[in-house]
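Deliverable D2.4 — example input (structure tokens):
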């Protein structure tokens, strides 16, 4: 007995927040015919769809919303089962969106910078924005990002390999000739250098972001996120790492199933001045 699998994709366009129906009967029958398979199972899956309904019959009468009567009846039934989302808090999934700002004018020697702490709930971490003002003339982005999840103490569940790696800019955010920083902007990560055009040094200010859309960090009980303020003693790596005292600001974005009971207080206006 020959075992054969054929996989094809169909593209359809929804109408945003309005429920959308698509008749894909002809396209599916064409795919089956072209496959040459005479006996088997045809499976249709709708990717990236929270909820979908498959209808195997139709009514030809159309209403003023350009929907078949049967389709409109189904929508009315679904709205009875699952009322429309009108304001935050109607449903637990994915949970209220939270954002927490942080700032340290000058990092205490050998201490890590805390991006997020105090989270006691179930949810998912979805993004980081970081501003970094460097107070040294050497490489500054060697610090590891660490995610302490569900009771982690000394050792985190997730430990990165360097600041530049976390933000998708491996090898120091540098050009191929290692002489200039390269700015970039993508859907999931980006980097911007405000350094004067003087080569690598003196280093000044940088901003960077990363969205955990394709790789969300889930937690069931608690979460803490940190990054080391760490560089090199000089461009000669053999001399080892150098704890730094930079000016760092951040915003952490995450969802959790209940509103946060406590949040970090915002600094006073005079503490928000970029030094």
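Example output (designed residues):
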């Amino acid at each position: 007995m020959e075992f054969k699998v054929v996989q094809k994709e169909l593209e359809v366009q929804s109408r945003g927040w309005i429920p959308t129906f698509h008749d894909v009967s002809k396209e599916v029958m064409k795919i089956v015919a072209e496959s040459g398979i005479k006996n088997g199972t045809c499976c249709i899956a709708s990717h990236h769809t929270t909820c979908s309904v498959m209808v195997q019959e139709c009514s030809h009468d159309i209403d003023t919303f350009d929907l078949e009567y049967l389709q409109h009846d189904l929508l009315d039934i679904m709205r009875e089962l699952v009322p429309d989302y009108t304001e935050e808090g109607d449903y637990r999934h994915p949970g209220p969106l939270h954002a927490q700002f942080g700032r340290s004018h000058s990092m205490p020697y050998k201490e890590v910078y805390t991006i997020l702490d105090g989270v006691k709930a179930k949810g998912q971490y979805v993004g980081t924005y970081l501003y970094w003002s460097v107070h040294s003339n050497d490489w500054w982005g060697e610090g590891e990002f660490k995610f302490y999840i569900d009771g982690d103490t000394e050792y985190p569940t997730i430990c990165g390999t360097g600041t530049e790696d976390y933000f998708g800019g491996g090898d120091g955010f540098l050009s191929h000739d290692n002489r200039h920083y390269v700015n970039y902007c993508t859907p999931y990560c980006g980097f911007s250098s405000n350094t004067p055009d003087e080569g690598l040094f003196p280093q000044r200010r940088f901003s960077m972001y990363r969205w955990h859309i394709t790789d969300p960090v889930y937690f069931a009980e608690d979460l803490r996120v940190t990054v080391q303020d760490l560089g090199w003693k000089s461009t000669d790596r053999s001399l080892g790492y150098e704890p730094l005292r930079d000016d760092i600001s951040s915003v952490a974005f995450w969802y959790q199933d209940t509103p946060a009971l406590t949040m970090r207080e915002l600094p006073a206006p005079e503490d928000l001045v970029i030094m």
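The chain has two domains: 1-86, 97-272.
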